[in-house]
Amino acid sequence: MPISKMRLSRIKIQLQKIAIACSFFLSFTPALAPVYAANIPVKSGSIAQAPYSKLFFTGSVYAVKDKDYNPSNSSLGFFSVWSKNPVNNDIQVSVRYHLQDKYLREPGTYLTGMTILNHNQPLLKINQVIKETHTKKEALHPSYYQTAMFATDPFWIESDPFFYPTYYDWGYVPPSHDYTGFTRFDISRLASAIAQLPNQKLDVQLKFNNGETEHWRLGQGTVQALKQLVEINQ
After folding, report:
1. What pLDDT does 127 receive?
2. Range(s) of the domain holding residue 87
3. Which residues form the signal peptide (predicted)?
4. Where would I find the beta strands (DSSP E) of the chain?
5. Does 152 map to a domain?
6. Is position 141 within any domain?
């Protein structure tokens, strides 16, 4: 039986009332209200394809990834993936590092913890290791020779200012290595502390079992996304 115009009008009015009631309720929602899974855009593809410093969904976990690297060589640095399992609410962070600290070459060396700091003030200590691999030596590039071109000083009194003779020299570049490893931490018990982090760039201190430390940073966008991550509520 076709629906009359009057019934359609009544249904429309009821929907409008529901929308008004919902907006009234949401206006009183606290600033740190939980983020619900349905409100998070689903990103297709692997973690490797996801953007940095953005909350995304892999199909099984919600995650945020971050990187801080050496400006002269982007393969050197501190790389992390922070994730939350919506089924059991486990929160973890996986850390991969590629560093040129010579003390990391000691046998049996691995990452045991990291501290999040704000101007040397510790905010968060992460040390509950789930899984780790010992650091291993990795070649960045083999040794090679490169050609360098030099020109004579154009202001030298005996040189022609319109023609600067050049000569070539061979330079030896030694092989370059880094030390890489992986550690995964359980940070479920730190959810409340993560939710209270300031919305700004923060320092990260990596600590290894031989006492060596490395200092890197978490971007502001990553910090904000992490606060969303821990507030996810199915």
Report:
1. 97
2. 8-136+178-230
3. 1-33
4. 56-57, 62-70, 73-84, 91-99, 111-118, 121-126, 129-141, 144-151, 166-173, 176-186, 202-208, 213-218
5. no
6. no
